UniProtKB/TrEMBL annotation:
This is Interleukin 13 receptor, alpha 2. It comes from Oncorhynchus mykiss (Rainbow trout). It comes from the Eukaryota. The keyword Glycoprotein applies. The lineage of its organism: Eukaryota, Metazoa, Chordata, Craniata, Vertebrata. Keywords: Glycoprotein, Membrane, Receptor, Signal, Transmembrane, Transmembrane helix. The keyword Membrane applies. Its main location: membrane. GO terms for molecular function: cytokine receptor activity.
Amino acid sequence: MLKSKTWQLTAILMLISDWSQCIKSQECTVDPPENIGIDDPGHLGPLYIHWTAPASLTNLTACSMRYHLEYFNTYQSRWTVIRTVRTWYRAQFDLEKEVRVRISTLLKGACTNGTELKSPFTEMVLPPNNTGPVGSRVQGFGCVFYQKEFMECTWETGLEEPTQSQYSLYFWHREMEQAEECPQYIHSNGVRTGCKFTEESLSEFSDFNICINSSSPEVVLRSAFFSLQIQNYVKPAAIETVHLEASPDRRLQVQWDLPNERIPRHCLEYEVEAREEGVGGQPLLQRNVTNEMTLTSLSMDGARRKCFRVRSRMHHYCADRGFWSDWSHWSCHSGNRFLHTEIISWCISLNSIHRFACLFSSMHISPPVYTVDVGSLQTLRLESLKLIFQPLHKFLVTKL
């Protein structure tokens, strides 16, 4: 028994010695993975990549083994690298393009003297199943996720679309077991040109995969595949009301109310457009983007009329991109309101002074009795009114 154990220990030491020698001379090679395969589970994009360990390393215990996987990401036009100890991986692919996968074995441990060895790649390429004329593929595809309540995806027929053909849309996301057909088609002149998804059929922050194919008794037509992150296609509802409030320093406070929708307020940013009549009647436009629901206008020039409108979209904190909402209606404020307020104040003051002057001139105080020259009194009243109205005249000239 002791002799047998001694022989096994000697064999292991010889194997390690042989590995050390081949590492030093760089003559040692590691076999790549075997039995590589790619399966399509029918989820309109995700593919299941699997392989087995090389037979030459099946019983190896003195080293750890893992795998270096690379696949070409056609969405980003670059290779994606994954290192894993598993013998499978799931990745998203554009099924209209070539699928390219390559895998190598990584070996490290006592059998390699602590150095990590890498095998040559074993590669697999799957051509796309692009049957049918190129012109039969749908074009102009786009989706809008309205107020995070429902989504509509629309398309246009292909340039070589034969008569009596009909489009069908299928979709899948991670919360579904299998792909399903569009829950509600949108029609134009009897032809399917879109699909409406209810909130229950949607999933955010997940690959939302879509396939549009068509059937025709005349010819096989080309399928189209799309993958979306639907939180990047949100379009908020239009802002309904814009409030304008003038301050004593001739600034305008612009405020607006949000419609009742499912988008959190902190996920929105706003664009405020100001329009003011400029020189020669030409409008002057100014736009400001803010995260707040209020904006202070820095200038209100005299009698000029100033109008505002507001729109919103998803902030980059909550989505990579999004659609602007429709503009609100214009809400306007006339600069003459400031002028009218000051004129009214002047008129009230003048009216009070005039009444006092008239009352004073008609008073008869006795005793004692004083003799007053009526002509001098009238002159005094005119001079007083002149002193009062001269500043008002200058004010009106500068404002008007």
